[in-house]
Q: What sequence folds into this?
C-alpha cells in the first residue's frame, strides 16, 4: 500500500482538519490526529501573552514506520494544533462545536426584520475562533452555520455594522499579534 492510499479524507473534511484527540502516555501531552496526515502529533503547549503556543512537538507515524520528509514538516499546522489544545479541557471534555463540524442546528430563517443581536454575536465569536485557529473566517462561518460563503460575508458585514466586530479585527497580519 503506497503512502497516497493511506491518506484518506472523508468528503465532508479537508486536509488538516482535526480528526480527534487522545491523551498521550507519560508527560500529559495531548495527541492530535489530523485528516490527511500520516502522522499523529503529540504536543505540549504554553500560554504566552494570552496566546497558546506549541513548545514541544513529537511526530509519530499513525500506522507503521513512515519516513518524515521535509514536505511533511512544512505541512504541520502549528497554530491550529495550538488553538485546538487551548480549546481542549474543561474536565477533559473537548468542545467539539468549536472545531471542524459543529453539532448546531441550522438557524431558522430570519423574520421580516432579520436576525437579532444574539445571532450576530454568535457569528462574531465564530469569526474570532476561526482567526485564532488560522482559518478563513468566512469559510469557517459558512461550514459552521451551513450557509454559503456569500451569506457569511453579509453576516460579517452586519456584525461590523452592529458593533460586534471592529474594523480590522479579523485581519491576519495585525501588528498586535505579531511578535
A:
Amino acid at each position: 500500500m503506497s503512502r497516497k492510499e493511506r491518506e484518506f479524507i472523508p468528503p465532508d473534511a479537508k486536509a488538516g482538519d482535526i480528526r480527534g484527540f487522545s491523551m498521550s502516555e507519560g508527560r500529559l501531552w495531548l495527541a492530535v490526529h489530523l485528516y490527511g496526515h500520516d502522522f499523529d502529533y503529540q504536543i505540549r503547549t504554553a500560554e504566552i501573552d494570552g496566546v497558546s503556543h506549541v513548545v514541544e512537538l513529537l511526530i509519530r507515524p499513525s500506522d507503521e514506520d513512515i519516513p518524515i520528509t521535509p514536505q511533511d514538516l512544512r505541512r504541520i499546522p502549528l497554530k491550529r494544533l495550538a488553538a485546538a489544545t487551548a480549546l481542549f479541557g474543561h474536565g477533559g471534555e473537548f468542545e467539539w462545536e468549536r472545531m471542524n463540524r459543529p453539532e448546531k442546528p441550522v438557524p431558522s430563517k430570519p423574520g421580516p426584520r432579520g436576525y437579532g443581536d444574539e445571532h450576530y454575536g454568535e457569528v462574531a465569536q465564530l469569526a474570532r475562533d476561526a482567526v485564532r485557529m488560522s482559518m478563513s473566517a468566512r469559510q469557517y462561518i459558512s461550514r459552521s452555520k451551513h450557509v454559503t460563503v456569500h451569506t457569511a460575508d453579509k453576516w460579517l458585514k452586519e456584525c461590523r455594522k452592529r458593533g460586534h466586530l471592529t474594523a480590522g479585527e479579523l485581519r491576519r497580519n495585525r501588528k498586535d499579534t505579531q511578535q
About this structure: The mean pLDDT is 76. Residues 92 and 143 are 26 Å apart (CA to CA). The helical segments are 3-6, 70-74, 78-87, 117-132, 137-145, 149-162. The chain has two domains: 3-95, 104-162.
